[in-house]
Write a structure and sequence with these properties.
The chain is an alpha+beta fold and 312 residues long. Among the domains are: 119 residues, Hotdog Thioesterase (Thiol Ester Dehydrase, Chain A, Roll), CATH 3.10.129.10; 40 residues, no CATH class. A five-stranded antiparallel β-sheet has the order 1-3-4-5-2. The protein is flat, with a radius of gyration of 56 Å. It starts with 13 loop residues before the first strand and ends in a 42-residue tail after the last helix.
């Protein structure tokens, strides 16, 4: 490919796409050894299936490596200084990836001509599995490239120092939290140094917000008097005279007898049977006296048989 120089590259220039063969399980295992990432999700089918995946899958950095390879082949006389990426989808064995890119920035830093290239990788279904950015260093023009026998431009000492002092990428949430706290502390220290040097314009804008907040506090103060009348409502609680309503409950007690009043009518309903008791007056049954009428029973005393006395 033709040599590329900083002066000749334009924003929007595309990177020559690079298509790779289908990803294999052997390739995934080799990458695990190279990166020392021995997660069983990448090398143990049974474990990956038990975790809810269809099979093992490739490391995310695999697709980023393909994108960096594409940039290096496109920019043969340049260096890759740094790269970042986010992984959008999993890459499975058998996926065919194609790496692409486009120039999005062109600038100088530490005396180095640089370009930023947005890169991404697509699978055979044109689904983007990775998005990232690669920063490259290259010769400013053809004359500078021919001045030395070096195939690639030299890295400035300032850049080397920056990379050496760069903090490592956090490995977990605890390290990420610690890094954020350290960064905040460093910013506060830098702010204090600027104040000592007399760079007070930065702190001056800060006071206005508090001043604006102070007038905002008075409105709540008038609201408090409104709350005090509510306290005056407590005298309403002095409606304790309503305790006189307690007699009302006492009046309710007589209501209880009123409830009992209907009960007597029920008893009165039972009273009708009592009149039946007079019907029991026949207890003085004179019928037993009728046997006294049996006294005429002596009628059998009639000695009609005396007629035989007529015997001749």
């Amino acid at each position: 490919m033709p040599q590329l120089y900083w002066d000749t590259i334009e924003l929007g220039d595309p990177v020559t796409p690079l298509s790779k063969p289908a990803v294999t399980r052997v390739q995934i295992a080799k990458f695990a050894g190279a990166s020392q990432d021995w997660s069983p999700l990448h090398i143990d089918d049974d474990f990956a299936k038990s975790a809810g995946y269809g099979s093992v899958f490739a490391h995310g950095a695999t697709s980023l490596g393909f994108a960096i390879e594409a940039v290096q082949k496109w920019l043969e006389n340049g260096r890759v200084l740094m790269s970042t990426a986010t992984f959008q989808k999993l890459v499975w064995p058998g996926d065919i990836l194609t790496a692409k890119g486009v120039v999005v920035n062109r600038y100088e830093k530490n005396g180095e001509p640089r370009v930023d290239v947005d890169v991404w990788a697509e699978n055979q279904n044109h689904d983007i599995v990775m998005k990232g950015q690669v920063t490259c260093l290259l010769w400013k023009n053809e004359k500078e490239g021919k001045k030395t026998k070096n195939a690639f431009p030299a890295v400035a000492p300032e850049t080397v120092k920056e990379r050496r002092t760069a903090k490592p990428v956090p490995k977990n949430d605890a390290e990420a939290t610690r890094a954020r706290l350290e960064a905040a502390a460093a910013q506060q220290q830098q702010h204090a140094v600027e104040l000592k040097k007399g760079a007070r314009p930065a702190p001056r804008p800060a006071p206005p917000p508090p001043v604006a907040l102070r007038p905002a506090t008075p409105p709540p103060a008038p609201a408090k008097p409104a709350a005090k009348p509510a306290v005056a409502a407590k005298p309403a609680v002095a409606v304790k005279p309503a305790i006189a309503t307690k007699p009302a409950p006492v009046a309710a007690k007589p209501a209880a007898p009123a409830k009992t009043a209907p009960k007597p009518p029920a008893k009165a309903a039972k009273a009708p049977p009592k009149p039946a008791k007079p019907a029991k007056l026949p207890k003085a049954k004179p019928a037993p006296k009728k046997p006294a009428a049996k006294k005429p029973a002596p009628a059998p005393k009639k000695p009609t048989p005396k007629k035989p006395a007529k015997k001749k």
